[in-house]
Automatic annotation (TrEMBL):
<dbReference type="GO" id="GO:0016740">
    <property type="term" value="F:transferase activity"/>
</dbReference>
<dbReference type="InterPro" id="IPR002745">
    <property type="entry name" value="Ptrans_KptA/Tpt1"/>
</dbReference>
<protein>
    <recommendedName>
        <fullName>Probable RNA 2'-phosphotransferase</fullName>
        <ecNumber>2.7.1.-</ecNumber>
    </recommendedName>
</protein>
<keyword id="KW-0808">Transferase</keyword>
<dbReference type="InterPro" id="IPR042081">
    <property type="entry name" value="RNA_2'-PTrans_C"/>
</dbReference>
<comment type="function">
    <text>Removes the 2'-phosphate from RNA via an intermediate in which the phosphate is ADP-ribosylated by NAD followed by a presumed transesterification to release the RNA and generate ADP-ribose 1''-2''-cyclic phosphate (APPR&gt;P). May function as an ADP-ribosylase.</text>
</comment>
<comment type="similarity">
    <text>Belongs to the KptA/TPT1 family.</text>
</comment>
<dbReference type="Pfam" id="PF01885">
    <property type="entry name" value="PTS_2-RNA"/>
</dbReference>
<dbReference type="InterPro" id="IPR022928">
    <property type="entry name" value="RNA_2'-PTrans_KptA"/>
</dbReference>
<keyword id="KW-0520">NAD</keyword>
<dbReference type="InterPro" id="IPR042080">
    <property type="entry name" value="RNA_2'-PTrans_N"/>
</dbReference>
Amino acid sequence: MDERRMVRVSKYLSKHLRHQPELIGIALDEGGWVDVDVLLQAAGAGGFPITLDELEQVVAANDKRRYVLEDGRIRASQGHSVPVHLDLPVVEPPAVLYHGTVGRNVAAIRVEGLRPMNRHHVHLSPDRDTASRVGGRRGVPVVLVVDAAAMRAAGHEFMVSANGVWLVDHVPPGFLRFPG
């Protein structure tokens, strides 16, 4: 499959496995899973046919490992705006995590901290480079440093998704270090 098709399939999956499953007539279970056969049939009926081989290639080749394929089912690793419970265990985070954003968001973050917005959790990166790539999707990246050890000591709970994205309900501004 060529790169353009790979991106189109991945974006299609993201839209329907994270945000709008009802648009193609599928229902995610409480963990965000849907049977692969159901997804493929719905995609085809909705005018965007995907083969099983294409689906497997997108899952395997996606550099961000956005999807999990298991026992004939698929789900997005995180980033849902629809109600799901990923059933991830609470784990000890590294001492420091990172969050990539753009400059226009920094003033609000200084006041409110990091909020999940339309998602279930705030997404944090394990390293500065990943956070920079995430922030760079919407402009010139600004990387914030999160004092995860202090947050954990204060009672905040962290989870990590299958693709290594750290998840937390909120990051209050006092736990953030801003550049400059």
